[in-house]
Amino acid sequence: MQYISRILVVAALAFVAHTANAQPPARKNDNKKSNKAETTSVVELSERAKSQYPVTQTPQEVDWKREIYRSLDLASEKNASLYYPVEQTGNNCNLFTFLFNNIIKGNITAYKYNLDGVEQFTEENIVTPVDMLDNYRIYYEEANGELLVGKSDIPSAEVLSYYIKESHYYDQRTGTYGTQVTAICPVLHRSGDFGSDVTKYPMFWIKYDDISALLAQQPVMTSSLNNVMSMTLDDYFKRGCYEGEIYKTVNMRNLAIAQYCKDSTEIKLEQEKIEQQLKDFRTNLWNTRTVAEIRQDSINAANAAANDTISNNADKPTKKEKATRTKTNSAKKEKSVKKEKSSSPAAKSGSVSVRRERR
To answer: CA quadruple 156, 84, 248, 62: dihedral positive or negative?
Structure first.
């Protein structure tokens, strides 16, 4: 009996050891990917991870939509989160380094930047990693079919601005107004061979829906006063933490603002007008007004009421004036009565009394 029980115990231990060491191939691959992601800025998400970070897409059928293009200057304090650290330190890297490494590994698809600046997410416009490296003279090596680029060779320090496309929309079915970044384009700033003027090279367009889940995995620091990385790159864009000037809107003639404005003054006025149009539409969407406008209306109403009270009090006579007016009116009445008596016919001819005697 003891012999049989020992056999059962040994068999049970062997079964437990086998199940502990056995893993499905998919699980092993996921573990390899997670280990790889800890050493580089590349994030590879499994299907299960992607389901935890659903993409927030702009609704296809909306009642109102306006699409605009902005230029984000990374020298601005609000946009500094996209520039630092310039060179990757551990898992911390800036936006371009993050995008660059994922493009090289094939996790992100880049699309050609056309001369008209309009993004076209089609197969014929796809930019391969090798083409990107060759076009911008980025040094790389090939080993075992993989592209290898050193940290110092990634031109993240030269990417000093970004073009983004925003979609402002109102969905009447859900009664919601939203703003969604739909595309991103890094812009390379390079000087000439002899220190001439800086030339801007828009590198490629990336569809934001393709990188939203990846950006949700990359933390970012948003303040110099608080060094805690409490936000992800996806949060940064969805919350609108950036700032940038409008350089184009989607229009039927496909013209940028600089193409139909004469000078910088007109460009500035046009940018302010577009910003105000977006603000007015959102403010007046439900016939609501801002708190500042309501407060100002209350102040204006109070001032108007005070002015009316002052004017009404100015028109009212004082007690002395009332008494004087009463005496004057009484005197005028007495005078008019005497005048009427003196001007009557009986008064002029005299009054005659006739008494008839009886016979």
So the answer is: positive
